[in-house]
Write a structure and sequence with these properties.
Keywords: Membrane, Mitochondrion, Transmembrane, Transmembrane helix. This protein is mainly alpha-helical. It is built from ten helices and no strands. It binds 2-acetamido-2-deoxy-beta-D-glucopyranose (2 copies).
Length: 262
């Protein structure tokens, strides 16, 4: 019952947020997806229409897990008879099985390469860490994971986190490329330079999500994994929009409005 109330509240909040933020079309799309995700029953039964190749949602198992995760720890305890997340067999392995953690070497190596690629392009989206440091920190955490479950979780988290950084880096390049076609705008910039304006615009997106959704003291609010997912979708949409529509794209105009006012 409580769970239902929390979800209704959340859906109301989502409605308000998405339509005010993304407009009717994109907001509706995201909402439809989220509402489906809120109802694990409907998720388990694929519709009679069979494979739905609808839109660009990639419904891989990671997203399913993320979206079906409970809102808070306490809620999990309350419904312990009926765990909402299908656990992978063997994941229960506790610290006593520490020696048997299987590392996903190929995936670790691809993460490392993706980080190096970003470093080589001198991205500002790797937390200002020195070259190599970003990966060293991740690798240390992976090597110290106390269980297979924690190792897997960490790997997924870092993958998702890195995807967001890659998308920001891509959006940043597209913004700067579009700006370079409008040199007349540069004197209007309210930041030190165009690059800082782009950085600031991209970094402020998550703050908006967090202000809207981050859990408060009572455990209300949205899971941080959801925020990651929303952020990823936003930057993907932004990159597509900038790529397709350049100087007349929705996000470019929004950016100009905030950082290059008349
Ligand atoms: C659905 O996706 C599959 C593989 O991605 C593709 O072969 C097929 O043509 C798609 N069907 C429709 C109706 O788009
Ligand atoms: C390594 O991780 C990736 C991404 O999570 C996964 O798709 C792949 O199956 C994993 N490989 C092994 C051997 O566990």
């Amino acid at each position: 019952m409580l769970e239902f109330k929390v979800k209704s509240l959340l859906v109301g909040k989502l409605l308000h947020f998405f339509f005010s933020r993304f407009g009717w079309i994109a907001g509706g799309l995201i909402l439809t997806f989220l509402i489906t995700a809120c109802d694990p029953g409907s998720m388990m039964l694929p519709g009679p229409s069979g494979s739905s190749n609808s839109s660009s949602w990639k419904e891989d198992s990671f997203e399913m897990q993320v979206l079906m995760e409970p809102f808070s720890e306490t809620e999990t305890e309350g419904t312990s008879g009926n765990p909402p997340i299908p656990r992978v067999a063997g994941e229960e392995a506790g610290p006593s099985h520490q020696a048997s953690i299987i590392h996903n070497a190929s995936f670790e190596s691809s993460l490392h390469q993706r980080i190096q690629r970003l470093e080589n392009e001198n991205t500002p989206f790797l937390l200002d860490k020195g070259k190599g440091e970003y990966w060293t920190d991740i690798k240390r955490d992976l090597d110290q994971a106390p269980s297979q479950q924690e190792y897997n979780r960490l790997l997924e988290f870092e993958n998702c986190d890195l995807q967001i950084r890659e998308l920001k880096h891509l959006c940043s390049a597209l913004f700067r490329q579009t700006l370079s076609q409008h040199p007349d705008l540069l004197p209007k910039c309210i930041e030190r330079d165009a690059e800082s304006a782009v950085f600031s615009f991209l970094e402020s997106q998550r703050e908006e999500f967090e202000a809207e959704f981050a859990p408060d003291g009572d455990g209300n609010g949205i899971n941080t994994h959801w925020i990651d997912k929303l952020e990823m979708d936003l930057f993907q949409e932004m990159a597509d929009d900038l790529h397709k529509n350049g100087g007349s794209s929705y996000y470019f105009l929004k950016f100009l409005q905030e950082y290059f006012p008349d």
